[in-house]
Specification:
Elements (H helix, E strand, L loop, with lengths): L3 H4 L2 H14 L8 H24 L4 H43 L1
Helix pairs in contact: 2-4, 3-4
Length: 103
């Protein structure tokens, strides 16, 4: 009987682990309830912020400043989430390419 450590040297074992992780990677789709939750929470938070700005007793100039700041925050969050997603997908793609070069 052959011991597993004698079959795999360090390089073979690393490529085996990379192949096992990459080839089994499948993007998981979000459930419809999670998708709905994301939009509901976004809508509630936006409406709450706008209602708060409507009822607060400050000058209109400050209200517009807060609205612009809020819109900038939303834009930044969307950009950040896209960048994080793109980096993750690029890492997975690069690992697949590197693995194919090894074989």
């Amino acid at each position: 009987m052959v011991h597993i450590c004698s079959v795999f040297n360090e390089n073979n074992f690393k490529s085996f682990l990379i192949k096992a992780n990459i080839m089994n990677y499948q993007a998981q789709a979000n459930s419809s309830s999670f998708y709905t939750l994301a939009w509901v929470s976004f809508t509630v938070s936006t409406l709450g912020t706008l209602a708060g700005l409507y009822y607060v007793d400050i000058e209109i100039v400050y209200k517009f400043f807060f609205i612009m700041s809020y819109l900038f925050t939303i834009s930044s969050c969307m950009t950040l989430s896209k960048v994080v997603r793109d980096r993750h997908e690029a890492t997975i793609s690069q690992q697949k390419i590197d693995f194919e070069r090894v074989d």
